Amino acid sequence: RSIATRRMLGGQNGMFFVPDAASSRDDAGRLIIPSREFVETQGVRMVFGMGGAYADGTIAVTIFFTNELAERSAVDRYASLISNFKMGTQAAIVAEKVFA
């Protein structure tokens, strides 16, 4: 598989990794990053991201488009970022101080 996903600790969190933005395809043979123009003009080589849900169902997502390549093991070091972000912003979510 060209896209790796995994569930993470810290509630409803998940992560994905696309090792080659220009050529990685899903199980149906479709490009995972379909915008060829974006990939080419920005020099995107690798994509990874993480996301999670707060207790109230609000979702937080971060996607990184990079012009460098890295092994999955290096990207896995960033997995805790979404949990840390959610912990740091939980009070704003509860106080409804976020954009709809």
Distinctive features:
100 residues; 3 helices; 26% helix
Structural account:
The chain has helices spanning 36-42, 72-75, 80-94; strands at residues 4-8, 13-18, 46-53, 59-66. The chain has 100 residues and is of the alpha+beta class. The longest helix has 15 residues, at 80-94. 26% of the residues lie in helices and 27% in strands. The protein is elongated and about 40 Å long.
By secondary-structure content and strand pairing, the structural class works out as alpha+beta
Question: Quick check: average pLDDT?
Answer: 87
Q: Topology as H/E string? A: EEHEEHH
Please report the total strand number as a whole number.
4
The largest β sheet comes out as: 4 strands, antiparallel
Number of helices: 3
Shape: elongated
β content, as a range? 25-35%
Segments where pLDDT lies below 50 for 5+ residues?
none
Fold blueprint:
Layout: E1 4-8, E2 13-18, H1 36-42, E3 46-53, E4 59-66, H2 72-75, H3 80-94
Antiparallel strand pairs: 1-2, 2-3, 3-4
Q: How would you concisely characterize the structure shown here?
A:
The chain has 100 residues and is an alpha+beta fold. 26% of the residues lie in helices and 27% in strands.
